[in-house]
């Protein structure tokens, strides 16, 4: 895991149903005095064979203390049970060496005599070079045989009679020599991330740059996991999907509870995080997290998940589902490096662009939007818009059963009526006018009707929604799914073009 510009360090993840636990390694006192000290003091003697039995890396030139990088089995350092790989050496025989360079610490240890007292503290965020393998070219020759220098990036072996082929398995066992005290290196909880309404992101914040083998989890209260890196893209995707699945399950359960307090026509169909693409006056493009919710007849856009009833009145924006158009963007439609994107064209003609992290999330959103639109069209049955035809104020009703009905606004007299099946084409000027081409059922001739609307895009989207709902009614699988509408298992509606 990496946080900011700090060196990455090893962590362990534990995924439960509702919590992601991030653990780090630490050395803790597991028996003895009821206190915790981050520092330990241990005295070890130099043995005839094997010396102190430890190796070190690092130093002040890397802005960290010298770190124990190897502990040989069955040597004094290992048997003490108080020294661990990853311990930073703070003092040697009372000498403060926190700010010493690597070579300076090596010299102090060489001249420490047959017995040395070390004060150490476990460095949880040890640098990456601690993981580098032992390099024989920079092993410290024992002090009585050479005065050569050592490298802070390689293991400096602090032994007598040291043999470079000694590659015994590293050990972190705890065999206490101090009465009543026992120390162990353990995984301890670093951070708990509650998963309900958490969001995942593989992207560098605000950009379209995707980290292929890393992601972060941000809790609803803003607590961030840091960038969690994996050895491979496959491992990353497996964890990403597992966490996303738990978040989805929690969301469905939460929606089910919330819906108990809402009437049938105000049920929530979808809730979830997306990233919205924004046009900025300074930067070319940037993304910001938004929370979308489909509830009843509306699509809500929030900056944070709604928790109380009052929160629903404080949405950043809301739109009527049958007066907006949703489009899943294919590869040729994508605007940048982000995948899994969709656009929403509003009733004013404004295009909003969103992205989600996984393809399955995109599918869930698409099906939920289709179902929400269908249910609302089925509920309202018709929608009327004011329009102008040949300088006269008219009304156009889009009726789920009858089709298109145009009437005089003053007298309410119906001027013409056509079924949905009679619409053979349409065109618009992108501003206010729509020309409909209807086929006369008797003469089979095409009859053109031109209307002018103040809200052109709302009308176009509404007509599309009614057409899609009409087509969906002919799909028995879709009809059967209405009674058990969820965020999955909803078949696609046909995309009827009115162009």
TrEMBL record:
Its main location: cytoplasm. InterPro entries: PDZ (IPR001478), PDZ_sf (IPR036034), PH-like_dom_sf (IPR011993), PH_domain (IPR001849), Syntrophin (IPR015482), Syntrophin_4th (IPR055108). It comes from the Eukaryota. One of its GO terms (cellular component) is cytoskeleton. Residues 267-374 form the PH domain. One of its GO terms (molecular function) is structural molecule activity. Gene3D superfamilies: 2.30.42.10, Pleckstrin-homology domain (PH domain)/Phosphotyrosine-binding domain (PTB). CDD domains: PDZ_syntrophin-like, PH. Pfam families: PDZ, Syntrophin_4th. Belongs to the syntrophin family. Adapter protein that binds to and probably organizes the subcellular localization of a variety of proteins. May link various receptors to the actin cytoskeleton and the dystrophin glycoprotein complex. May participate in regulating the subcellular location of diacylglycerol kinase-zeta to ensure that diacylglycerol is rapidly inactivated following receptor activation. This is Gamma-1-syntrophin. It comes from Nothobranchius furzeri.
